[in-house]
């Protein structure tokens, strides 16, 4: 375990260096001039001297590598800078919007688990039956319908026509339902079919037949052995597709005017607010890295073969 932690720490250091440099480079090379946005040249008349003075003050005249080193020196002191437009600390802005984004992501995951686990399990247990056909239809519809279009349909049906739920904003549990259902349905399709395939494979293994021969109940065989054995591929895909989930959160927050960091970063991109964009990318990258690390560690619990291989490797090395 100590070697794993040391290896993880080295990976974190390398990951932070790479992700901060790449994100800094992409943000700086993106089209647009933040100085013109700050001075609001479309609404206010400004001189070239004012533009050059502000560009010099913000350090944009320095070489790109010097700008990155200055930013990184502040970053290792946990100073993400201030927004060009609001002059608020970036970390304060990210932390204020992060709870709303996390509750939306958790709500979508609960919707996904509430549909994918029972539907995928029943489809595996009753292959070729009507429930299997229903799971296939749900997967096809979920993969074919864009999340933004589904969100607009749900708004029209539940908010405009029936008036049962709010259309936008963050005002309690009711305002979370439509965004969570929209995002949850969009990501459910993959996991229904993946869980079905993984369960069918695990139910065909010899250890399942051995458990039946010992008289263990079918319910215990399913939940304690087959379902647990089928989880690693599903969790692997979840870790890989976490970036897509974060991208989907951004779209859903914009559609439902949900005040999370996704909507905040879209507004920042429009105004070329570099420190906020940089802070968002870095926080999201760290969250993705932490979840993927947790996924890797979960394999040792879910797959006894992996623990046995590591133990034998340590014994013979």
Secondary structure category: mainly alpha
State the shape.
Answer: flat
Mean pLDDT: 82
Based on CA atoms alone, the radius of gyration comes out at 25 Å
Helical residues, percent: over 70%
Number of helices: 14
What does this 3D model show about the protein?
The protein has 317 residues and is mostly helical. 79% of the residues lie in helices and 0% in strands. It has helices spanning 2-29, 34-39, 48-58, 64-75, 90-125, 130-144, 147-161, 174-203, 206-213, 218-240, 242-255, 261-270, 274-302, 304-316. The longest helix has 36 residues, at 90-125.
Highlighted features:
single chain, 317 residues, mainly alpha, 14 helices, flat
Secondary-structure blueprint:
Blueprint: H1 2-29, H2 34-39, H3 48-58, H4 64-75, H5 90-125, H6 130-144, H7 147-161, H8 174-203, H9 206-213, H10 218-240, H11 242-255, H12 261-270, H13 274-302, H14 304-316
Brief summary:
This protein has 317 residues and is mostly helical. It has helices at 2-29, 34-39, 48-58, 64-75, 90-125, 130-144, 147-161, 174-203, 206-213, 218-240, 242-255, 261-270, 274-302, 304-316. Helices cover 79% and strands 0% of the residues.
């Amino acid at each position: 375990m100590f070697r794993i932690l040391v290896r993880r720490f080295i990976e974190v250091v390398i990951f932070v260096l790479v992700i901060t440099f790449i994100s800094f480079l992409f943000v700086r090379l993106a089209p647009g001039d933040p100085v013109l946005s700050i001075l609001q040249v479309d609404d206010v008349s400004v001189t070239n001297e004012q533009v050059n003075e502000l560009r010099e003050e913000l350090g944009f005249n320095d070489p790109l590598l010097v700008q990155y080193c200055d930013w990184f020196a502040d970053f290792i002191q946990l100073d993400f800078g201030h927004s060009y437009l609001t002059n608020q600390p970036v970390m304060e802005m990210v932390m204020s919007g992060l709870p709303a984004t996390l509750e939306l992501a958790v709500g979508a995951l609960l919707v996904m688990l509430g549909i994918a686990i029972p539907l995928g399990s029943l489809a595996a247990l009753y292959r070729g039956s009507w429930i299997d056909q229903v799971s296939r239809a749900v997967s096809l519809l979920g993969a074919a319908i864009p999340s933004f279009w589904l969100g607009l349909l749900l708004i029209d049906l539940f908010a405009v026509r029936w008036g049962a739920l709010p259309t936008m904003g963050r005002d309690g549990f009711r305002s979370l339902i439509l965004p969570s259902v929209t995002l949850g349905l969009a990501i459910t399709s993959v996991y229904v079919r993946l869980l079905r395939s993984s369960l069918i494979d695990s139910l065909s293994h010899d250890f399942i037949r051995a458990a039946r021969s010992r008289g263990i109940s079918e319910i215990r065989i399913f939940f304690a052995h087959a379902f647990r054995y089928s989880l690693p591929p599903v969790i692997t895909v979840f870790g890989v597709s976490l970036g897509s989930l974060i991208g989907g959160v951004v779209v859903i927050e914009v559609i439902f005017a949900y005040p999370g960091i996704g909507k905040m970063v879209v507004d920042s991109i429009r105004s070329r607010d570099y420190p906020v964009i940089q802070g968002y990318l870095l926080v999201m990258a760290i969250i993705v890295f932490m979840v993927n690390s947790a996924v890797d560690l979960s394999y040792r619990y879910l797959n006894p073969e992996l623990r046995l291989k590591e133990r034998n490797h340590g014994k013979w090395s």
